[in-house]
Write a structure and sequence with these properties.
63% of the residues lie in helices and 11% in strands. The protein folds into 2 domains: 8-169, no CATH class; 262-392, Histidine kinase-like ATPase, C-terminal domain (Heat Shock Protein 90, 2-Layer Sandwich), CATH 3.30.565. It has helices at 8-26, 44-55, 61-75, 82-98, 101-126, 130-212, 216-244, 262-273, 294-314, 352-363, and strands at 278-284, 318-327, 330-338, 367-373, 376-384. It is of the alpha+beta class. The two termini are 62 Å apart. The chain has a 5-stranded mixed β-sheet, covered by helices on one side. A hairpin with a 2-residue loop joins strand 2 (318-327) and strand 3 (330-338).
Length: 392
Amino acid sequence: MTLPRPHRIDLTIAVVGLAGGLVLWWFGLHTQLDRPFTQRWATLVPLVVMAGCEAARRTAPRTALSVGTVAIVADQFTYGSLVTVLMFTDVVYAAVVYGAPAHARRVPYTTGLVTVGVTIGFLVWWQNAYALLVGVLTGMISFLPAITGAVVRNHREAAGAARLRAEQTALLAEMDRVQAVAAERARMARELHDVVANHLSAIAIHSTAGLSLDEPATTRRALTVIRENSVAGLAEMRRLIGLLRDSGGEPEPGAVPSLDALDPLLARARTNGSAGGLEFVLEDTRPPGGSLPAPVELAAYRIVQESLANAVKHAAPGTVRVRVGRSGGALTVAVDSPYGRRPGPGAPGTGSGLVGMRERTELLGGEFRAAASGAVWQVRAVLPADERAGDA
């Protein structure tokens, strides 16, 4: 098994400690007298071993503590070196800071028990106050570094947890921002499609009719429709631009279309669909005086608007029926248009209008369906009409 390379700082600590111990040893500065091993070189053995433990204090803290404990005990049988003791305190500290969590939790308890055991043992043996001094010294070189390491480790873990929470909060905020931007872009796309594309479709149909028929009256009528749709489209674009600008918060009350404007909407559809042989009928069975949340009214208006635009572009000659009714807590919008081949010019479709109608309905928690039933293309939308729908 390949041992990990010692950290550069740990190697520096080991080299400096070993050099300091050699200086003290050279000048004969020891911590103890009258020990079993009276040879001066014996003091160097625990010193060298402890320096090696310092080199491994970060990469192998548990092994360094075990070997260092043996070295510090062996140092007590020699003349002793102050540097060996100091390096041992650092090894104990590093074992708590860099060791595995379970091992780091055990070291303070173990050193505390050792301190208490040494104090009691020497009290029983010597029966004088000097035993208390030995206990204090034992606590200073073992228990105190372990407690210090535990405090430092707890602070580091708390800082790491706070940093992780901050990163997660920033990530969630970024996700919310991206979702908000995507939702706003989808809303703008629906508005632009419902407002601008419908007018442009009418312009395309009538300009094609004006170019294909060499009749002054037909051409003049087509140009009139083109101008009306151009002016209306320009007005709608200006309204949207006004909503996008920062005007201090809310848009003006008159800026949002409502179901009260269905008659002008059908009148414009009659003008646009006259070339295709279409008639438009409105059946509004809502009870008088009832109010609807603004988002519900806007969604219902846009669904009718898009359905009429689709009828102008794709419906066969016949009658287009628009029915709006309210029953209980639901607003029902139904548009039936003739389904089949149509004569004269048409306009290509992309299907984004159906997607927009479905999105509007689902955002309010309603139900939407659009499909052919025999010779009739049916659009059905059921929207919640209570006040809570405005918060959806």
